Amino acid sequence: MTSETQASMQITALMVVWILGTSLVFPQSDTAATEKVAEDPIPCSKVCTCQYDDFISELNMYCSSRNVTQVPTDMPPSTYSLWLDGNRFTSLPAAAFRDLTNLDFLNLQNGQLTTIDPQAFKGLGSLAHIHLERNRLRVLPGTVFQNTPNLASLSLHNNQLSRIEERLFAGLSQMWLLNLGWNSLTVLPETAFHDLQGLRELILAGNRLAYLQPQLFQNLGELKELDLTGNYLKVIKANVFLKLTKLQKLYLGQNQILTVVPRAFAGMKSLRWLDLTNNKVISLHDDTFLGLHNLHVLRLSHNSITGIRPRTFRDLQYLEELRLSYNRIRTLGDRIFEDLGHLEVLELEHNQVQEAHVGAFTGLSHVAVINLSGSCFRTLPDQMFKGLPRLHSLHLDRGCLTKITTQAFRGLSGLRRLFLQRNNISVVEHQSFVDMVGLSGLDLSSNKLGALTTHTFSGLKNLEYLLLSNNECRQFLQNGTRQILPRLRYLDLRDNALTSWVPDFSDNIEKLLLSGNRWKCDCSTLPLRNYALRKSQVIPRLVETHAEGEEPDTTITIYNNITCTSPPRLAGQDLRDVDGEHFQNC
């Protein structure tokens, strides 16, 4: 045996000994660990469940909905977050959490709390988040939060608070969220928020506030969102929001606001979203929105606005969404939207607009959606929508239209969807849609249309969806459908007065709805019968469709019958079920 072989065998023997030795150590280590766990279990209150997060070294204690009638006294001092929501105790005594110096999060929501001792949070110098919402609190001691200087968020919404003490939030300069919504507050001390210099979000919605003191928000220079929805405010005065230079969202909906004084929003150079819906505003001053250069969304729906002055929106050059629906605007004057060059959505539905000047929409070079549903035009002014190169969807449904003229939609080459349903339209002049080369969807249902010829749809080479149900059509494109509407995929002709029809479609057609007509089951409908039998997937007997007024995802199944009305012996029978011998002389 060579010296090299001997050395190799010695190394191998040493490795075996090392491996065996190591494997013998592991059971000892596991046993020691098990004994350590047995000796040192996670500390926890006997009525709660605890979880220790090794990664961030935090102890979380869960005592939610345990029918606890008083705050546990055996809580471990190392507790980081404490969940006591949904329990039955009605009060918090002094120093209820005195040993929890490490506590960061305290959840007391959905309980039966009626009183809190002024010293209840004594010792909680590290506490950052308190949830006290959905309890029965009527009043809070003025010094109750003096022991929580690091508080970052405080939720007090959905209680029964009728007032707050002037110094309730004194010293809470670290707080960024305060929710006082859905209480019974009628007035706020003028200096209530003066120490909250770091506040980012303030929710006061759902109270009974009728007045805002001029100095109420003056120290909230970092505030980004203010919610005053659902109060009793009647007037928005000047300078109330003057110091809110970083505010981005202001909600004032569902109040009783009659007047917004000129320059009411002066100084709000960062405001991006302003909601004034569901109020009683009658008029807007020329200077109402002065200085709101960064506003992107303005909602004024459900008010009593009777008209728009030409320069009302002159500073809103970056506005993207303007909602004016459900007001009392009867006339759209010349150039009233001229300064809104970045506007994308304009909602004017249910105003019963009767008149629009030719230049009413001048300047809306980026608008994509205009909604005029519920207006009361008899006819549309010629070239009413001229100069809207990016208009994508136009809503003129549920109105008083009786006629579509040749010049009404001139220039709308980029329009994709046109809604004209539920009017009284009986006449569509020839070439009315000739400029709409990009139109893919046209809804003319629930009107009074009679004969529809190839001239009616001239220019609609890209039309894919055509809805004509609930009209009085006796004739529909007897010849040339394939050429006039080469890309048509979906055609709804339900509930009309058709008696016969020769289908002539390209291979793009996917669905035909034909029920509710007056089909004569004779030689004139033989081409339709043959087509229906050959293309059963195009004219199925059952069709899934959207019920009107339902959510977009809700579908219903309807019968797609081709029911014979004559001859009498075939009345009530589906054309597809008529025996072929009936047509043998055709």
Automatic annotation (TrEMBL):
Keywords associated with the record:
Glycoprotein, Leucine-rich repeat, Repeat, Signal
Domain LRRNT: from-to ranges: 43-81
Q: Which GO terms describe its biological process?
A: dorsal/ventral pattern formation
| Record-linked InterPro entries | Leu-rich_rpt, Leu-rich_rpt_typical-subtyp, LRR_dom_sf, LRRNT, SLRP
Q: Which Pfam families match?
A: LRR_8 (PF13855)
- Record field: transmembrane: none
Q: Which residues form the signal peptide?
A: 1-27
Q: Which PANTHER family match?
A: AGAP008170-PA, INSULIN-LIKE GROWTH FACTOR-BINDING PROTEIN ACID LABILE SUBUNIT
Which protein, by its recorded name, is this? Answer: Insulin-like growth factor binding protein, acid labile subunit
The opening ranks of the lineage are: Eukaryota, Metazoa, Chordata, Craniata, Vertebrata
